[in-house]
């Protein structure tokens, strides 16, 4: 009986830890909704409001008046979806080549690719802006989509995932059956790495959705603003209505939550896959 009690106690402590961690993770979203559903005056009082109020609809209406909220959401969805789809395709294709194909200079090229991850992205702002300007893509969604169509991290992630998830025996069997390299990648490799694709897809979608600096530089026209830039315009010079801003921010997080809820099983499988392999 003593051993049963000793084994039960760590499980209880684990559940308590997980419950506290979940509450701490949810609290920022709850607090965002509390501020967004109250007035700025109520939030600035001491002690501040800690329960949701009844002004969320009024604050949301102010957001819709100040900015083209749904237009900005649509622009963000188009950009995030296009970038995510292209990253998944090109990075998985490159990862397949680096992990399963043998060609001259493969390892040196992969090391060079990894070295590019050490360069701060801010150093590429001016050259990228000059290229986008020369192409005439300013105030065009292509200015945000094209530079992000493939990432070094995505190639690295898919290369490492395919190295363990796709056995060489499957590749050799496909070649014996007469499959080309692309058909082997499409019909053999991709189905085996769906959890890894889902994980990379969620990271890419969230990163693109929350991107602020590059869209701010190349998208000046209000009609092509992403939701992050549109929310920035809610701040006045002399006064900021935090309730209105947080109401808009809360609504802007809903698409990300929906994407995560749809792909969370594949995401968890992708994260834990390496832990259950023998």
From TrEMBL:
Q: Where are the transmembrane segments?
A: 12-33, 72-98, 110-135, 141-158, 185-206, 242-263
Subcellular location as annotated: Cell membrane
Q: How does it sit in the membrane?
A: Multi-pass membrane protein
Keywords (A to Z) from UniProt: Cell membrane, Membrane, Transmembrane, Transmembrane helix, Transport
> Has the keyword DNA damage been applied to this entry?
no
Pfam families this protein is in? Answer: BPD_transp_1 (PF00528)
Residues in ABC transmembrane type-1 domain copies: 73-263
Kindly report the protein's main subcellular placement as a broad class.
membrane
In the record, the note on similarity to other proteins reads:
Belongs to the binding-protein-dependent transport system permease family.
PANTHER family for this protein: ABC TRANSPORTER PERMEASE PROTEIN MG189-RELATED (PTHR43744:SF12), ABC TRANSPORTER PERMEASE PROTEIN MG189-RELATED-RELATED (PTHR43744)
Q: What is this protein called?
A: Cellobiose transport system permease protein
Give the organism, scientific name.
Evansella vedderi
| Taxonomy of the source species | Bacteria, Bacillati, Bacillota, Bacilli, Bacillales
């Amino acid at each position: 009986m003593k051993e049963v009690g000793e084994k039960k106690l760590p499980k209880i402590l684990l559940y308590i830890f997980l419950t506290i961690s979940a509450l701490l993770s949810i609290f920022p979203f709850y607090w965002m909704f509390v501020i967004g559903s109250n007035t700025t005056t109520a939030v600035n009082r001491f002690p501040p409001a800690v329960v949701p109020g009844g002004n969320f609809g009024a604050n949301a209406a102010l957001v819709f008046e100040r900015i083209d909220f749904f237009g900005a959401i649509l622009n963000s969805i188009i950009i995030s979806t296009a970038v995510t789809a292209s990253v998944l395709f090109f990075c998985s294709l490159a990862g397949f080549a680096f992990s399963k194909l043998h060609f001259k200079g493969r390892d040196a090229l992969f090391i060079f690719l990894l070295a590019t991850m050490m360069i701060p992205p801010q150093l590429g702002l001016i050259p990228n802006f000059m290229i986008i300007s020369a192409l005439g893509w300013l105030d065009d969604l292509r200015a945000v989509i094209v530079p992000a169509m493939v990432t070094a991290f995505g190639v690295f992630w898919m290369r490492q995932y395919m190295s363990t998830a796709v056995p060489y025996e499957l590749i050799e069997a496909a070649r014996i059956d007469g499959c080309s390299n692309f058909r082997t990648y499409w019909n053999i490799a991709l189905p085996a790495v769906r959890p890894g694709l889902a994980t990379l897809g969620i990271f890419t979608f969230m990163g693109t959705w929350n991107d602020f600096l590059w869209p701010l530089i190349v998208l000046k026209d209000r009609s092509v603003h992403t939701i992050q830039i549109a929310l920035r315009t809610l701040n006045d010079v002399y006064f900021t209505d935090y309730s209105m801003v947080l109401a808009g921010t809360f609504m802007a997080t809903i698409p990300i939550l929906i994407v995560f809820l749809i792909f969370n099983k594949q995401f968890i499988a992708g994260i834990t896959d390496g832990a259950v392999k023998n």
